[in-house]
Structures are given as C-alpha cells and as structure tokens.
Write a structure and sequence with these properties.
Length: 367
C-alpha cells in the first residue's frame, strides 16, 4: 500500500483493478483508488470513489440484476461490513463511496483499515439468473411417526409378567417370564422348555448358579436386546456385595458372562468378554483367565495372559495365581509359552500334543 500512490503517479493512473472474474455469464472487476479519484470514464457523468465493483455487459446482452456487500478486515483480524448490502441492475460501477463530481459522501477512502501496509477485503456477490425459476416439490404428508417402542414394551411385559407361563427360581426368589420369548432367544432354553425335559412339564426352572440381580439383567437383555450399561452393573454389584461377605465373588460382569454362556446367548456373551478385556485387574485376572480357558474365549484369554505378563510382580503375590498354576497346569503352560514369546501356531501345537499325552495317560480333565 505504501508504494501504491507513487506507482499510480509513475504510470499516470488513478486506480488499480483486479483481474476480471465471472458470475454466471456476467463479468466483474474490483477497482481501488487510494485518493478517491475518478474510477469510471464511460458515461456522461464520470464516477469517483475509493472502492467499487464494475460490471460489464454480457454477450449477448441480457438484463443484469445483482447485489453485493463488502467486508473489510480490522487491525485485530476480524471482518466488519463496510456500508450496507446494495443492489445493482445496470452496467456501471458500484461502491460505498462511489459518487458523481460535486456530490461526494461524508467520508471517502478506507485508509483507516490499512494494517501492516496491507488492505484486506472480502466481496460477497450474488447474481440473479434471468427468468423465473420454478421448482416443484412433491407434496409430503406431515405425519409424525413415533420412535420404535418394542424394547420398552417388551421390558414392560417382563416387569409386569402378564400372561407369563414360566417361573425361574433364583436364590429363593421367583421371576416370571414367557416361554415363547425365551425359546425364540435361546436355543438352550428352547430345549429345556419344549423337548420333554422336566422344565417343559413343570414350567419351573431352578437356577442355582446365578444371583438374582444378574439373572434379571440377563432376562432383560433377552426381552429387549438392549445391552446393559456399566453403571447399571456397578449398582447391582454394590447391592449384591451387601448380601455376600467372605471370599471374593465374581464381578457382576463375570456373572453375566457366565449365564450368557450357559444359555448360549452369543451377543451378550461377546459384549461381556469385550468389557472384561477393558476392566482387567490383578484381583480378578486369574479368575477371568480360568473362565476364558473353560469357555474358549480366545481374545479374552489373550488379554488376560498379556495383563499377567505385564503385571507379573503384582499378580505373583496373589493366592489366586498360586491356585491357578497348581490346579490348572494347562493354563500355566499357556502363560509360560505366551510370556516367552512362542509363536501362536507353535504354542497351539505344543498344547495339543500335551493334551493328547494326558488323554492317553487318563489324566486329562473333562470340562
């Protein structure tokens, strides 16, 4: 900017222009005159000003209609609109301080906006195409469709136990349910309730390996297909802990995993395994590893082995680790192979060979 006046004087000019640009078929350019001099020579009344947009006639000539606004950058970097949004309908120059000789506005020029020898501007230009544009939109019914409610309705069905025909006896508490839902959701329950087993006659299922809170969470999943939240399970765990004292009991997540495995509800089973991978601790890792080995939960088993390897000093102090090694030699061998970095395929071969030897010796456990 500091050289601009000198350069214009040297070139015998009064303004500078931008390269031409087009909107639709219409050509425009931006004009800047630092002294607010003459910026248009093609009409009987020449125009003066500091900043303007010049429009040119299209080829072939058609009527022009457009509107523009100019924003200038302040010294703090923000942009402010200079003047108001204006409209144009002919081929000439337009700008906030454009005027004919003798009718100058109160303020000409924009040097107050120059920062670091630079003037920064934004132009917003809209051109209206010639002719009326009609867009047809098909009529749409404005009917609000409710969100799905099946999961809520099924949960209500379970809670109210209306028309129930099956009873689960869990820790002395009766929980009523519906055989059709249970048979549709679990192959194990279908066989129990419809294949001539005792439960199919009495419609009473005794559950002796699960607490009430966990079994209710399990049934809720069967009815709604909604996975429980970690917060819900934590609340149930705290409630259950108040009833049980003594040695460590499985976490609510472990218990839910066990019951989902028992009844072969695969989605819930895999979700529990994924959550247990994230929640491993020294206190529970040996218990989870034992169950992962029994349930053949490969990914969870790897997560447990990795956790023990990385936290060996802490886990070695626990009685659970000693018991695991003495009572489950195959798990101890898996841990040894994993910790020493034996490739997975080679480790599988070693474990299979050991299992065959134990079967031949009659010492292999039947799980």
């Amino acid at each position: 900017m500091s050289w601009l006046r000198t350069a214009l004087s040297q070139e015998c000019g009064s303004y500078v222009t931008s390269p031409d640009f087009f909107v639709d078929r219409y050509k425009f350019e931006v004009i800047y005159s630092p002294l607010g001099n003459r910026i248009e020579d093609y009409t009987d009344e020449p125009k003066f000003g500091s900043l303007a947009i010049r429009s040119y006639p299209p080829n072939p000539a058609t009527p022009l209609a457009f509107r523009y606004s100019i924003l200038v950058q302040r010294r703090d970097g923000s942009f402010v609109q200079w003047d108001v949004i204006r409209h144009g309908t002919s081929v000439e120059v337009y700008g906030p301080d454009v005027h004919v000789k003798g009718s100058a506005p109160s303020a000409i020029g924009i040097f107050e906006w120059v920062s670091d020898d630079t003037l920064t501007l934004k132009f917003v230009l809209e051109v209206r195409p010639l002719g009326t544009q009609v867009t047809e939109f098909p009529f749409k019914e404005s009917v609000d469709v409710p969100e799905p409610s099946l999961h809520r309705d099924m949960e209500t069905l379970l809670e109210e136990a209306s028309s129930s025909d099956v009873r689960f006896s869990v820790q002395g508490e009766d929980i009523r349910a519906h055989s059709q839902v249970l048979c549709a959701r679990s192959e194990v329950l279908r066989k129990q309730l419809s294949s001539g087993m005792q439960e199919s006659m009495s419609k009473v299922v005794m559950v002796e390996d699960c607490n009430v809170a966990t079994f209710k969470s399990f049934l809720k999943f069967l009815y709604t297909d909604n996975l429980p939240t970690i917060q819900d399970l934590a609340t149930e765990q705290a409630s259950q802990a108040e009833k049980e004292v003594g040695s460590r009991h499985p976490s609510q997540m472990e218990a839910l995993w066990a019951v989902s495995h028992k009844y072969q509800v695969l989605r819930l089973q895999r979700w529990c395994e994924a959550q247990l991978c994230k929640q491993l601790s020294a206190e529970q890792v040996c218990s989870v590893l034992r169950q992962a080995h029994i349930f053949e939960a490969t990914q969870l088993e790897k997560a447990c082995l990795s956790y023990i390897r990385d936290n060996l000093a802490e886990v070695l102090k626990l009685q659970a680790y000693t018991d695991l090694n003495s009572k489950w030699p195959e798990i101890a061998l898996k841990l040894q192979l994993f910790s020493t970095g034996v490739p997975e395929t080679e480790a599988a071969t070693i474990l299979q060979a050991r299992k065959l030897r134990r079967l031949e010796d009659g010492t292999e456990k039947t799980l």
